[in-house]
Each structure stands twice: as structure tokens, then as C-alpha cells.
Amino acid sequence: MARKIVLTGGKGGVGKTTCCALLGAGLSSLGARVVMLDVDIGLNNLDVAAGIDTKVSYDIVDIAEGKCRMRQALVNHPAFPLLYILPSGHSLNVGKVTIEDMQKIIGELNSSFDYILIDCPAGIGKEFYRAIYLASEAVIVTTPNIVAIRDANKVASLILGCGISNLSLIVNRVRNDLLAKRLMLNPQDIAKSLNIKLLGAISESDKITVSANKTGSVLDASPEATREFNRIAEDIHLGKRTENTFGFLKRRRV
Amino acid sequence: MNNEPRGLGRLKQVLINDKHFCPDRLNDVVSSDIFKVLSNYMDIDSADLLSKISIDEQGNYVLRFKVKCKRLKIMGLLS
Q: In chain A, how many domains are there?
């Protein structure tokens, strides 16, 4: 039975897809069988972020329409033998895949993998709910600015309303120089304000940006740049994330 | 000296306001009702009544109002 974790955040550009790809790689490096699902149909990016876009023959829409079988659509990452990607449809016909189709796909993947990571689209529309309904845990990705945190707060409330109580937070693109001067919001303060346990804080890294621009894949970034993602993956895999830093605070449904 | 990191106060305010959404329209309605009540006891001008509903850091509503009174009507009421 796979753990189904959705990576979401509401606001676009906070790094959901990058976090999904790097966590997927981190978990698979620990020996877990991981499949990453891109449910951002029409605006698919996970295949590019993972560097497997040239290997895509079929996608999630083809499976939903019965044009191919699951194993034909799944792409195995060449550098991570236990990491698979189920690419999203690249056509703009977003409405073709229903929640029922997605549940069927998840059901099929459930027994073959330890983790199903769901890369959620930005926004809180129909596509957001299509991703949320598939998950049993949520990782909210935000950046240390008020606009992104506000969206993260709203998304957290919506997720709780959908019955997912296992929420955690990744604060991405933290600038340590600004943090030292107290000119940037502290990830722990953000987690406390949102009443969500902090899974990790990712420092802004030129190396990830350069890697994404150079090879197209964030998975080619140096081990130094991805160290924090690997630590988070370890926490998720070894169950440390159940230790709630802010356990005395119960998040209320809004 | 305030040790709170810059922006944290603003973040709290935004999150609390989202939680207890209080539009300006409500403020206008409350102001209008307060004006009607106070007009029974004093001569006031609606332009001189300043009222504001806000939310403190604990999430409690706080109503503040300030009014410039020209004359009390209280003596007339007592006679």
C-alpha cells in the first residue's frame, strides 16, 4: 500500500514541481519505489523538471482514454532505477480526465509502489481538488513571502476540509543572508503562524537554477544543492515527520 | 526594541484578517447605527463620527469610535 502524498501550495512558482522531483529522487535513493504523478494536465512540467520529457510516449490522458496500458505510460528515470514518472497530458483538453479516472489510476499504482507523489497544479480550481482527492497526506510548499504564505494558509484550510489531517510544510527559497539580518520571515515562524509542522526549509540555490537551465532537469543538480531534499526524504521515509514540532498547536478548520 | 522579525506582524495581521473577514461595508452599517443612537443624546455631525472595527492578535474584534459632540441633549431628556 503506497503512501499518497500531494505537493501543493496554491500559488504558482513556489517550487512545487521542483520539490516533487527532488523528493521523489531522494526517496528512491533510500530504496523506496516511487512514482510521481503530474496532474497539472495541459501545463505539464514534471517531465521536464525530471529530465525525461524526451522519453514520454504516452501520458495520463492516454491511460484514461484506454489508449495504452499503465506500464506503457510510466517512464523509468535513467539515473534513479526505482523512480518512475507518470506524465501529464500535454494537450489543452484539461477536462478529459475525471476524478474517477484518477482514482482508477491510483488504484492500479497502489500495490506496485511505496510512494505516490502527486504534483498538484497551482490555484484552487477543479484541478486542485482532482489532485487532493487522491492523497492521504499533503506537503504544502511555500516561499517566505506573505502572498505565498497567505495562499498556503487558504490551501491548508481547504485540504483539512477534504479530510486530510496529515499536513506538513516546506519553506522553499530561503535566503540565509536575509534571514541572518532578520529581513526575511523565518521558516519556523511561518510554520508556527500556519500551525503546520515544518518538514524543512530549502535555501535558495543557484545550483538548482543553473542545473534546470543547463540540462532542463533539476535532478542533475549537485548533491550539495539537493542535500536538504534528501534529509526531508529521509524524515518522510523513516517516519521522523510524525514528530510534530508544533504539536501543541492544533490547526483549526476555517 | 522589537525583536520580532520584519514582516511577521504583517503576516499575522493578514492571516487573522483572512480568518475573520470583516468588510468595510459592515463598518459602515455599524457606524450608521451608532450615529442614530448617539443622536438621541447629543448633537453630532455624521462626519465627526469616526469608527473602526479591527481584530487584535488574539482574533478578538475591537470596536473603536471617536465623536465630536456639539451639545448634550441629556438635560432636555431629564426634564
A: 1
Which among B6, B8, B15 has the least Cβ separation from residue A153?
B15
Query: Dihedral, CA atoms, A171, A22, A205, A198, nearest 10 degrees?
Result: 20
The span from the CA of A47 to the CA of A55, in Å, is: 9
The strand pairing partners of A139, in sequence order, are: A7, A168
Element (H, E) at A167: strand A167-174
Residue B11: which of A149, A183, A254 has the nearest Cβ?
A149
Radius of gyration of chain B (CA): 18
- Contact yes or no for A182/B6 (Cβ under 8 A): yes
Residue position matching grid coordinates 473602526:
B52
Written as one letter, the residue type at A198 is L
In contact, A230 and A176? CB cutoff 8 Å: no
Q: List the single residue in B5, B10, B19 with the smallest CB-CB distance to A186.
A: B5
Grid cell listed for A105:
489510476
Residue of chain A whose Cα is closest to the Cα of B7: A185
* Entry pTM: 0.79
ipTM over 0.85: no
The SS3 assignment for A69 reads: coil
Segment (H or E) for A84: strand A83-86
Q: Domain range holding A76?
A: 3-252
Tally: H helices and E strands in chain A:
11, 8
* Cβ contacts of A146 on chain B, cutoff 8 Å: 7, 10-11, 14
Average pLDDT along chain A, 254 residues, taken 10 residues at a time: 94 93 95 94 86 89 91 94 90 72 93 95 89 94 96 94 94 92 93 94 85 78 83 88 39 43
Q: A28: closest CA among A205, A219, A164?
A: A219
pLDDT at residue B10 tops 60: yes
Chain A positions in Cβ-Cβ contact with residue B5 (cut-off 8 Å): 182, 184-186, 189
CATH number where A98 lies: 3.40.50.300
